Amino acid sequence: MSPFLGRGWQFPLQFDPRTRQVGMVAGVDDIEESLRILLRTHPGERVMQPTYGCAVRRAVFETLNESTLTELKEMIRKAILFFEPRILLDRIDTTLLTLEGRVDFRLHYIVRTTNTRHNLVYPLYLDQATSPVATY
Question: What's the whole-model pTM score?
């Protein structure tokens, strides 16, 4: 494993009862954990890094249209550009799942040091679920 890819804590935090150590992830798994943390963190949540994060959660109550999706993809692109130097973002595809009240963002990226392609699906849950409710 390249030191550039890194090693970090596993989230959610887990401890190994045998070794009494925190669970760790390395390599591409660490990059995926880092991406999830970046996208879940709202700018301003980290006191020492107030610009860290991505404001996609503010769209939870927005009307979802092409303009909003484009804005969200741009937010994700900028957050990755500024805070995840280990990857090169190739593209972001979106899938709107109206019945589930969710938008899936599929991030296609290349790990810079190994030149390998990967993808990650990040779901954004919305307030607009229109799934039928069962009545009895």
Answer: 0.82
